[in-house]
Amino acid sequence: MENVAFIINPFSAKKDYHPFLRALKKEVSNPLFYISESIQGTFNFIDNHYATTDIFVAVGGDGTISTVAQKLINTDKILAIFPAGSGNGFSNETKFSKNIDELLAKIKARKVKKIDTFTVNGRLSINVSGTGFDGKVVKEFEKTDRGFKNYIKVSIKTFFNYKPVQIKFLTESFKKYSGRYLMLNIANTRQFGNNAYIAPKASKSDGLVDLVLVKKFPLTYSPFFAFRMFTKRLKDDQYVTYLPVSEIQFEVDTKNWHLDGEFNKIESPVKVKVQPKSLNILQ
Questions:
Q1: Contact at 8 Å (CB) between 126 and 260?
Q2: How many CB atoms within 10 Å of residue 277?
Q3: Residues 151, 130, 258, 114: is their CA dihedral positive or negative?
Q4: What tens digit of pLDDT does each residue of 147-180 get?
Q5: pTM (2 d.p.)
Q6: What's the pLDDT tens digit per position in 112-151?
Q7: Alpha-carbon distance 39 to 64, whole Å?
Q8: Which in 15, 27, 221, 258 has the greatest CB count within 10 A?
């Protein structure tokens, strides 16, 4: 297990990383690991071990994975994952499980695939990012103890009070889509997390992201939307529009965003740009 480093977010999910660490030490003699205290601490650890490490393993949720990935973009370094978040959307889509033996077997095999990433005003995203309703949900969700049940509670409460955002597309060929929307999502993979598939046809290696525009729908449509999302059946209809893009610019009348499930403030105008095959990920 040479040239491998493990970066552990101690605050992910149930905030108990000790079982993972015990299992790791049982299987690997003197593993190189870091209990992350901050984003900058993670960056410093990667910088300090960059020359002698080939594979960096992110132990956490999508936010942790995205943080580690920032240092690996457009390099020969490899990202691996042990999912420990509340949704684990990206790890689900890249077939990483909570089985340490499977992870160690992958590390030994060292099969690698290049995948796309994208930026929102220069900020990296690897999975799904968005604004509008889900940006507000993430903001409120971060005030809770997380978990799927709390996410559903916050989503329902927010839905009834949330006013759609105004989106104005600046890219000429997309101006006809300007209007008011419940939310706008940018999907590099198919799901938010917890097997909620917002973009069932999205591919992480086609040089495109799916821009998903969702109009505010009546309460009677909610069960259909939820059913389709959890069964990979969402598609274009009177409320949902899919736009595959490699680059796009628009303005939106809110600064509330989430990038891979982490709340961010982002000013308009907004530029989204795909970075094709920019990240090496363990298979």
A1: yes
A2: 15
A3: positive
A4: 677 777 777 777 777 889 999 999 999 999 999 9
A5: 0.91
A6: 999 999 999 999 999 999 999 877 777 777 777 766 777 7
A7: 9
A8: 258
